[in-house]
Design a protein that fits this description.
Shape: elongated
Order of helices and strands: HHHH
Structural class: mainly alpha
Radius of gyration: 16 Å
Membrane topology: Multi-pass membrane protein
Helix content: over 70%
Number of helices: 4
Protein name: DUF423 domain-containing protein
Subcellular location: Membrane
Keywords: Membrane, Transmembrane, Transmembrane helix
Number of domains: 1
Distance between the termini: 24 Å
Largest sheet: none
Number of strands: 0
Organism: Paenibacillus baimaensis
Length: 126
């Protein structure tokens, strides 16, 4: 088991709940609905990929010595920082140029899932 990804995933999930509560209670009246929706999208994707990191951590016990699995974990973490992070900052500052960063985070998420698939595929017994 790769405890590093389990811990990082748990921290991301914890922060997602914290940010979600902050958005629901503190930002509800402070942000326009479209910016609040952007913030909540960041929260949702952070939670999904935090859980993905936990899954990768546990999967490493069954898919040993997989460089693809390690790369998948780091790719998901980069995705959280770029995708969710840019949406948080965009929604709270209104700096729309930050929206240009968000797709790079989405690509990192997709790459992470593809690398996870590749790690599993390599371990299929023929």
């Amino acid at each position: 088991m790769n405890a590093r990804f389990v811990i990082i995933g748990c921290i991301c999930a914890f922060l997602s709940v914290l940010f979600g509560a902050f958005g629901a209670h503190s930002l509800k009246d402070a942000l326009p609905p479209n910016m609040l929706a952007n913030f909540q999208t960041g929260v949702q994707y952070q939670m999904y990929h935090g859980l993905g990191l936990i899954l990768i951590g546990f999967a490493s016990a069954y898919l040993p010595n997989s460089s693809s699995l390690n790369k998948a974990g780091w790719s998901m973490l980069i995705g959280i920082v770029l995708f969710s992070g840019s949406l948080y900052v965009l929604s709270m500052t209104g700096v729309t140029m930050l929206g240009a960063i968000t797709p790079f985070g989405g690509v990192a998420f997709l790459l992470g899932w593809l690398l996870f698939i590749n790690a599993a595929r390599k371990n299929i017994k023929k």
